[in-house]
Amino acid sequence: MSLPPVQAPPAVRRARALVVLTLLALVALGLAWELVLAPTGRGSWALKVLPLLLLLPGLLRHRLYTYRAASLLVWLYITEGLVRATSEGGRAQALAAAEVVLALLLFVLCVHYILLRLPRRRKNDAAKLAPVPDHEA
């Protein structure tokens, strides 16, 4: 006997939609860049988007650990974009800058989603966790 799935709040659903759209835009950019717009070699660099695609099922299922993993993985794409934006010229440089912008946006959206999903602490709870100063006479 299984319980019916619980519907996520609207803010969480919107955040998930933005994360998924940004991830798909990053995948599309990576494929277009390496296969059509500014290919390097035989297009084997297009495989770089595979890790992003592997995240997609977990993102669609609201798996919090997948959002955390995405927020860490995205830094590889930010780094690649920064390196290629400063070392290449022409169209590849513009594509690298677009990769950096999309990857940073994906990071911010993942963090936003994670914060929406984490339980909120009240101010009283935070005060209880604060260390008590040691008053010696």
Which structural category do the helix and sheet elements fall into? mainly alpha
What is the global morphology? Answer: extended
Mean pLDDT, to the nearest integer, reads 87
Number of helices: 5
Biggest β-sheet strands, sense, barrel: none
User: Radius of gyration from the CA trace?
Assistant: 20 Å
Q: Name the poorly predicted regions.
A: none
DSSP helix fraction: over 70%
Q: Count the strands?
A: 0
Span from first to last CA? Answer: 62 Å
Q: Please indicate the count of domains.
A: 1
Topology as a string of helices (H) and strands (E): HHHHH
Query: Which range does the strand content fall in?
Result: under 5%
Describe the structure in your own words.
The chain contains 5 helices and no strands. The radius of gyration is 20 Å and the shape is extended. It is mostly helical. The model has no long low-confidence stretch (mean pLDDT 87).
Name its key features.
137 residues, mainly alpha, 5 helices, 72% helix, extended
Question: How do the strands and helices of this protein lay out in sequence?
Answer:
Elements: H1 10-37, H2 50-60, H3 64-87, H4 90-117, H5 123-129
Helix pairs in contact: 1-2, 1-4, 2-3, 3-4
Task: Summarize the entry for a quick read.
This protein is an all-alpha fold and 137 residues long.
